[in-house]
Amino acid sequence: MSHHNTIFSQILKLVPRHEFNMLAKKHDGSRRSDAMNRWTQFVAMSTAQLVGRASLRDIETTIASQKHLSYHLGSGSVKRTSLSRSNQRLSSTFFEDLFVKLYSRCQSSAPKHKFKFKQKLFSLDGSLIDVSLKVFPQANYNRMKAAFKLHVGLDHDGLIPAFVAVTRGKVGDQTQAKLMNFPKGSVLVFDRGYMDYKW
User: Fold this and answer.
1) How far is CA 107 from CA 12, 20, 50, 103, 164, in A?
2) Residue 2 has pLDDT above 60, yes or no
3) Is pLDDT larger for residue 32 or for residue 92?
4) Could you give phi then psi for residue 100, rounded to 5 degrees?
5) What 3-state DSSP class applies to 21?
């Protein structure tokens, strides 16, 4: 039977598996042979993000409906209980380290911006990420919902994020922006949420 690469498998090829596996070994050590491995967890969570799945059951059903693709993605089967256990027990610092590795690869091949500025140009913005109030009571935003906030400083050299932070939803945009270490003389573009004349 002939095989055709899916767009998803082509996206996953951008993640160097050798470096991924070395990071997994560093963070997780040796694990039971029947435990969900990092790559399967990563494929499952990437699927959830790309196709907008809202629950573990949704993720399990989506992946089960395309079982024939799992072999070509290099992932194992996904059960919601195993995925839940992996998400709870495996350290999130693994993904921070993975981000740093991927980010350095992006920086080395990113094109320079065409604006006529002598200094670095950054765009700043913050976006709310709605989450369940029952699951994340510590992130209460108002009486109706909970939320975290994603703060991003976009470097226009290559259009890749230079600064990223996740905070509780009520944290002000300017509060987080003041923690970002911009090069001297940088040009910053932002909306009214960052307005602070002293800054």
Assistant:
1) 19, 18, 23, 6, 15
2) no
3) 92
4) -60, -45
5) helix
CA 185 centroid distance within chain? 29
Model pLDDT for residues 135-193, shown as the tens digit of each residue:
888 888 887 888 999 999 998 888 888 888 889 988 889 898 888 888 899 999 999 88
Angle (CA) 132 138 142, round 5°: 65
CA distance 5 to 18: 20
Q: At what angle do helices 56-64 and 80-89 cross, to 10 degrees?
A: 130
Integer Cα distance of 80 and 25 in angstroms: 23
Ramachandran region, residue 50 (left: φ > 0; alpha: ψ -120 to 50; beta: rest): alpha
Please, are residues 141 and 147 in contact by the beta-carbon 8 Å criterion? yes
Q: Return the domain boundaries, the chain.
A: 7-97, 113-194
Entry pTM: 0.66
Model pLDDT, residue 126:
92
pLDDT of the residue at 3: 55
Tell me what percent of the chain is helix, strand and coil, each rounded to the nearest 5: 45, 15, 40
Q: Residue 33's pLDDT is what?
A: 67
Contacts of 63 (CB under 8 A, 6+ apart): 43, 44, 47, 70, 77, 78
Identity at 76, one-letter amino acid code: G
